[in-house]
Amino acid sequence: MLTLNSRAAVQPALNQATSVNSKGGSVFRSFCSSPSSSSIYSRIQTYTRISQWRRRRQAFNVGQSRLYSLSYFGALVSYAIVCYKSFANQNVQYFLLALFWWMSKPIPVSLIPFATFSLFHVLTFVRSNILPHFFPPTPAATAGQPPTQHPFLKKLQGWIKANYDPAMRIVAYTELLILVRVIFGALLFQNSLLAPIIYAHFLRLRYYQSQFTQRAVEHVKTFIDGYVRRPGNPPVLVSVWDKAQFIIARWSGSVLTQQQPANPAGAGPARR
């Protein structure tokens, strides 16, 4: 315990510390209240918010990149199984394309075709192998006839058949959009210069194997042709477009001959 004499000795030091603290607080309050200090304080807050936003964006990009890689890893496993069971050209092409995208800089729009194919693959597999255990077929009304499929499975099968062709058309147009994306990405150094070359060759193969790709190319070609040949456009624009069509047609049709595959959708699931 402090005695009266020790308290009297310590009291001046306590008074000095209190005065210093009060002076420091008043100095800090006056600093924050001055115009120059308030602008500095607002700048510090702005820099802090920017740094926090950058850290959050970096964490989001890392998570997005991992999800992107995981998605293509799943596509590689899926198409490896498909190629093992049925060694078809279109399956090998999509397997190699998935491998290329998996090793390249992420391009999120390139996931749309694989996600669409995966949706129909999963629905077809679930309908054929899993749901019949939960929705068994109804016994036949008369002897000698096969059992009737459950109404829910009939609805699911009808939905797959009704939406298959529209989904494949969306895939065909998306693949053309991806080509535009990788071309501009190469010009702006957003992806490798090899990406548009490899993907253009992939689309060349798809054109000769998929009726959906053929129709999408012809539709886009007709649209551009109508825009270029409008009255009032400079003749040089028409000349460039004609030369571009000639070069593309000569390159795309130099080796391959058009085929009519059994499954027009290419890598899509077979109808059942």
Report what the structure shows:
- The protein is an all-alpha fold and 272 residues long.
- It has a domain at 86-252.
- 76% of the residues lie in helices and 0% in strands.
- The chain contains 8 helices and no strands.
- The protein is extended.
- 14% of the residues are buried.
- Residues 17-24 and 255-266 have low confidence and may be disordered.
> Outline, from the CA principal axes?
extended
Radius of gyration: 33 Å
Strand content: under 5%
Residue share in helix: over 70%
Mean residue pLDDT: 79
SSE string:
HHHHHHHH
Strands, count: 0
Measured between the Cα atoms of the first and last residue, the distance is: 93 Å
Query: How can the largest sheet be summarized?
Result: none
Note poorly predicted spans: 17-24, 255-266
Task: Supply the helix-strand structural class.
Answer: mainly alpha
| Helical segment count | 8
Compose a concise summary of this entry.
This protein is 76% helix and 0% strand.
List the helices and strands and how they pair.
Elements: H1 4-33, H2 35-85, H3 89-103, H4 111-134, H5 151-187, H6 194-207, H7 211-228, H8 235-252
Helix pairs in contact: 2-3, 4-5, 5-6, 5-7
GO cellular component, one term: membrane
Membrane topology: Multi-pass membrane protein
Pfam families: TMEM33_Pom33
Which properties best describe this structure?
single chain; 272 residues; transmembrane; 8 helices; membrane; transmembrane helix; extended; 0% strand
